[in-house]
Every structure is written in C-alpha cells, then in structure tokens.
Write a structure and sequence with these properties.
About 25% of the residues lie in helices and about 35% in strands. By secondary structure, it is α/β, with parallel strands linked by helices.
Length: about 120
C-alpha cells in the first residue's frame, strides 16, 4: 500500500475566473510570470528554482464549480491504483484521470466531503 507523503507535494493548481486578470495579479504581486508550457489549458507560472513544487493557473471549469474547489494540491506517487482503491473504500471517489504527454499522468480524487486533491504519476 502506498502512503501519500505530504513532502511529495509537486503541483498547486489555482482555478481562476479571469485568466488575463489573474496572470497580471500573480506577475505583479508574486513575480510569477507565465512560462511557455502547453499542457491542456494549464498556464504554468515561473516560480523560484528552489521551490519544490510548481504552480499553475487553470481557467475555471465545471469540475471546480460543481465541487466548490478552487485550489488543488497534487502529490507525487508511484502507484495511484492503491490510493484510488482506498479512496473508494473510505467514501471518496475518482473525479478524472488525464495523461500528460511527455510528463506522466494525473488523477483527481475527492474525499467524502468533496474536497479534491490530485495525484501525479511520473512517466
């Protein structure tokens, strides 16, 4: 059984309602500019090199509206199957799974209260 290690936080996704406004905000307030990365509709931000995780802006979508989640934390795991099985066993469910060509794949799960978290499985 794989344990999800909080020290393996690898990505933070922030749902935004106005991408242009948010890009300006995170650039001017945090100093994080958008970088040219093409992964679905994600906009990857340039965080300091010493940062152990990435930050992405995601234009608001139906998943975040239906679950009320605005920030999704992703944790790197080697085997998502065992985590998904345990989530179902204890009242959670799988929301979606995506392949990220050239990177790996992600799985989004919800806990029994509907809070969404993500798993990242490298290639």
């Amino acid at each position: 059984m794989e344990v999800v290690n909080p020290r393996k936080l690898c990505q933070i996704e922030i749902m935004v309602s106005d991408l242009d406004r948010s890009l300006l905000f995170y650039d001017k307030v945090f100093g994080w500019k958008a970088v040219p990365a093409y992964i679905y509709n994600y906009v990857v931000l340039d965080v300091p090199e010493s940062c152990p995780f990435g930050v992405s802006l995601i234009p608001d979508n139906e998943v975040s509206k239906s679950f009320g989640t605005r920030v999704i934390l992703y944790f790197e795991v080697n085997n998502s199957r065992s985590v998904v099985e345990l989530a179902y066993q204890y009242g959670g469910k799988k929301i979606l799974e995506k392949k990220l060509p050239g990177y790996g794949r992600t799985v989004q799960l919800s806990d029994p209260d509907g809070q969404i978290f993500g798993l990242y499985i490298p290639q």
